[in-house]
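Structure Section — protein described below
Tokens — whole-number codes for backbone shape
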Amino acid sequence: MHIKKLILIGASTGGPGQIQKIIKSIKKDFNKVMIIAQHMQSAYLQSFTNQLDNNCIVQVATASENLTLSSGNIYVLPENYEIFESMGVLKFKKYNDALNYSPNINLLFNSVSNIKENIEVMCIVLTGIGDDGAVGAYNLQKSGAKCLNESEESSIVYGMPKAANELNPYAKQCDINQICKAMEEF
């Protein structure tokens, strides 16, 4: 199935709880692809993915090398992955070089900003320490994506969203409930 809409979520400290809220808000007719990059030690990511899958009406799976993205699914990155286009489909590609954060949000966002397919993209920077995701979100904004950053009021730690807001004044600041609503309307 051709992907028409892609939602990218980046989070760090405080992210698992916020992502749970987003997952629980998803309706049965979800026909988009969602990719979640949550900073977390790899030993805990499979358990996190299973917990999301148990609380979601659609399938939540762990991304893997060369896995083809499919509409109606949610993928959690276990490590650093990029998205690439091959023969008309989008796939995951593992990035083996060491980066500051894993999974790296900028890497994910930047890889999607280079895809020339006719896909609508929404990227969301949630709570977290540091600035991962800010540059990638800005690059996505320049390529036509809709960018949302979690507001200071609903962020557990207002580091990553603040960095993204400072770099990209065109992004919309939203609390977690507004983010859920915007995703549903997207």
